[in-house]
Automatic annotation (TrEMBL):
Top-level taxon of the source organism: Bacteria
Protein name as annotated: Cytochrome c-type biogenesis protein CcmH/NrfG
InterPro entries according to UniProt: TPR-like_helical_dom_sf
Species whose genome carries this gene: Sphingobium xenophagum
Amino acid sequence: MTGWFLAFALAALVFIALLLLGRIPRSAREISAAALVLGLAGYAWQGNPGLAGAPRSAEPVEGQFDEKLAEERRNLGERFGPTGQWLILSDGLGRQGKTKDAANILLSGLRARPDDATLWLGLGNALVAHADGILSPGADFAFRRAMALDADGLAPRYFYGLALARNNQLQAARGMWAPLAESAPTDSRIKAELQANIARIDALLAQDGTAAP
């Protein structure tokens, strides 16, 4: 009822302001009142005054564009050439919050280059972003397709493991990352990062009473 009370009170205040401040002529008063009544009718038709408020947080959500993730993908994947161009277009749309369009751009690229592992990997990341960080079946398929096309590649397993870890599939993420950490060059940045990630996963699994394989 509060919503209706406020709506009628606001309409009344507007009409009084028109009379006292706007000094509308008598001939225009009926038209002004009719316009306000029409506005109330539209509110009654389209509005929902009994609906509870839903405050919104200004904090970014998990699925928004991840600039650090994109840079990591560029470091591990292809920056230039036809594949790089599709990824640049997709990243640009992702930065604007157009996550669906970002994924669709990569689907267009895959129609032209269906066996491109990097595009499949980009699609997996784009679908995760579009789903607010959730590893959807479509994203899972894209990651697995990238791994199948690039059997020895580091990037597909790295990013698939990252998506698994962020979706609390810790054992699966560890199983994906452990062989990468073992095969990565000694003293390399990626080896140190993978080892740190695996250590965090082991600590979380220990807290849950789950032993790492």
